[in-house]
């Protein structure tokens, strides 16, 4: 016999019998998880613009679901700063702002350089290979003008942090990079920015692999600061 989780949208089955030690459970994604991905991608791609109200009835009808998993997804999106809830108004897509950019990039400057240095110190050959693959995918998305380039940018940055990061540090920086995603997309719009970003990422990865820690720290800080300087002009 087995029991099931009681939370809305939960579908994970909890076995009560003994299983072999080699058994690896399969990750079960709930309906709320999938709805979260759909709405998040629409916001990050700009299909749902800042200040736009979230029309829950329309989205639920389009996806053929009830509003329960949609509300769960919106609650998670609010935690990442992508939507804002208002009493008697529901949810609205959060707008980009100079104030938020200043705050989130200041936090990145405090956390990411040290985390990448630590990641460089702890990285194995397999971590080097994963980081190289992440940069290759990012460059391909950037060159193709893909809407996924913001996501691939986040994956690359997190690949340099993961080897040396604890669970809490990793989660905090990942959340910051999720919030930054739309700002990165805005930053990359002008001509020439993609080429500059590709060159900076390549140099950062080279120092990270060679464990040139002082230079790595300088490059990461410069990379983050230069993006913020550009954004200050764009968000005036």
Automatic annotation (TrEMBL):
It holds the Pfam family FCD. Keywords: DNA-binding, Transcription, Transcription regulation. Residues 29-96 form the HTH gntR-type domain. GO terms for molecular function: DNA binding; DNA-binding transcription factor activity. It comes from the Bacteria. InterPro entries: GntR_C, TF_FadR/GntR_C, Tscrpt_reg_HTH_GntR, WH-like_DNA-bd_sf, WH_DNA-bd_sf. PANTHER family: TRANSCRIPTIONAL REGULATOR, GNTR FAMILY, TRANSCRIPTIONAL REGULATORY PROTEIN. This is GntR family transcriptional regulator. It comes from Lichenicola cladoniae. The lineage of its organism: Bacteria, Pseudomonadati, Pseudomonadota, Alphaproteobacteria, Acetobacterales.
């Amino acid at each position: 016999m087995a029991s099931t989780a009681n939370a809305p949208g939960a579908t994970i089955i909890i076995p009560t019998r003994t299983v072999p030690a080699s058994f690896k459970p399969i990750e079960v994604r709930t309906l709320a998880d999938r709805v979260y991905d759909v709405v998040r991608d629409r916001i990050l791609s700009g299909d749902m613009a800042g200040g736009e109200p979230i029309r829950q009835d329309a989205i639920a009808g389009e996806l053929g679901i009830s509003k329960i998993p949609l509300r769960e997804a919106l609650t998670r999106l609010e935690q990442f700063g992508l939507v804002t809830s208002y009493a008697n108004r529901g949810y609205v897509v959060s707008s980009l702002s100079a104030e938020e950019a200043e705050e989130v990039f200041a936090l990145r400057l405090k956390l990411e350089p040290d985390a990448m240095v630590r990641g460089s110190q702890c990285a194995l050959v397999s971590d080097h290979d994963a980081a190289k693959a992440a940069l290759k995918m990012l460059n391909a998305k950037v060159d193709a003008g893909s809407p996924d380039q913001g996501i691939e940018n986040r994956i690359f940055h997190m690949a340099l942090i993961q080897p040396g990061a604890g669970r809490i540090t990793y989660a905090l920086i990942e959340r910051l990079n999720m919030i930054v995603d739309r700002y990165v997309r805005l930053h990359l719009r002008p001509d020439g920015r993609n080429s500059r970003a590709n060159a900076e990422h390549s140099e950062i990865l080279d120092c990270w692999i060679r464990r040139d820690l002082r230079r790595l720290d300088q490059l990461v800080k410069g990379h983050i600061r230069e993006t913020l300087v550009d954004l200050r002009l764009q968000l005036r």
